Here is the input.
Amino acid sequence: MVLLHRVTNAFQRLGQAWPCRAVWIGLAGLWCCDVAQADRPPAAVSQPDAGRERVVFDVELADPVSPSTPPRVHRVVQFRDQNGFPVGYALRIATPICFENERKVLDVTMHWNAVGCYERLEWPREKPLTKKNLVPFTAEDYAKLDSILKDQDSILATHSLAFLAKPVKDAQGIDGLSGATPLTVQESVIQDAAYETWVMWRWANGKIVPKLCHLTEQSCTPAYLKQLLYSQDRRYVDFALNYAIAHHPADAQFLEDVFCVLERGDREHVVLSLRFLKGFMKDKEPLHARLIESYGRMKSMSSPLILDFLAAERDLPRTTLEGLTGHLDRLPYFQVNQILRLLEQRNFFTKKTESDVVRLLDGNDFFVARRACEHLQKQNLGSETQEKINAFRQRYRDRL
Here is the structure.
C-alpha cells in the first residue's frame, strides 16, 4: 500500500542552508548537489526541482538484480508545481556492486518526469561513478550513459545480467567488471561498466515506471489533464489522451481540448484523439462535420488519417462526402487525390460535388486541376461542366 508523507518546510530550508555542499534530505532520500567545478561531471549538479513542493510516497520495488527477493519499500519523491500538479519524481538508489575482487556501492539519485520517463541522474560530489578498477567516468561516459538510460527500447530490456557474461571471440572491448560483454550489447553499455549500466537502466525503465504513472493518475484532475493536453512534450499528451479515454470517455469538458490536439498533434496523437472523439460523439454527422473542419488545419503528415478514419465507415452520410468536397480548393494535391478517390470508390457524385470539383479547373495548381478533370470525365456531366472540361483540355493540350 502506498502511504503519503508530506515533506516539511524544515527540510526545504535545510537544503538551502548549505548551498555549496552535497546535502541528503533524509525523508526524501534526495541528493541536492551544488554547482560543480569545471572538471566535475555536469550531469551531477542540476537543480531544476529546487523550490518545488515535495511529497514523499512509500513504494514497494524489487531489486532488478534479484527480482525474486521480496520487494523493499523505497521513498519516492514527487515534485509539484505551484498548482499542486506533479512535474517529476526522484528516487535515491544505493545498491552494492560486487564482482570478482571489486566491492563498491552505486549511490545515485534518479529523476523521472511526471509520466515516468527517465530524465537525469545525480550523485554525491565525492562519489562520482566509476568503472573497472574504480576508474572514474569520463565526460563522454556520462553523456553516453544519459543517452542509454533515456532509450526505453534499449536491448537491455530483453537481456539478463547473465547474458552480459557470455564470452566473445574478439577480446577487444571486453568489460572486465561484468565479464566479456557480448558484441551485440557493447554499444548499449559503458565500456568497463556493463554491470552498472544494466542495473541503472533497469531502475530507470523497469517496474518503477507504471508505479510513477499511477501516482500521477491520483492527481489527474480536469485542470491537470487540460494542462497535459496542451503540453509541448508529446509524452504528456499521450498520457493525458490515454487517461481521458479510460476515465472520461463521455466528458464534454475535454471535447474542444482533444480537437485542438487533433489539429496540432502528430500521427499517434491523431489516432488517440479519434478514439476519444468516436467514443464521445455517437452521432456520425456532427462528428464528421467537426473532423472535416479540422482537416484543413492539420499537418499534412497527419491529415490523411482523418480520411482513413472516414473511409473505414461502411455508410458515410451524404453530408460527409459533400462536406469533404467543399474543402477541395484549399487543399494540396495529395489530400485532393484522396478525397476524389474516396468519392470514386463510393460511386458518389451529386450536383454539389460536381460544382466543388469543377472549381479546381480554374486553380493555379495544374496537377490538382488535371486530377479534377480526370475525376469529372468519369461522371455523367451537364453541358456547362462538359464545356469547361473541353476548354481545360484545349488550354493544356500540350501537357495532357
Residues 1-46, 168-180 have pLDDT under 50 and may be disordered. Residues 53 and 331 are 49 Å apart (CA to CA).
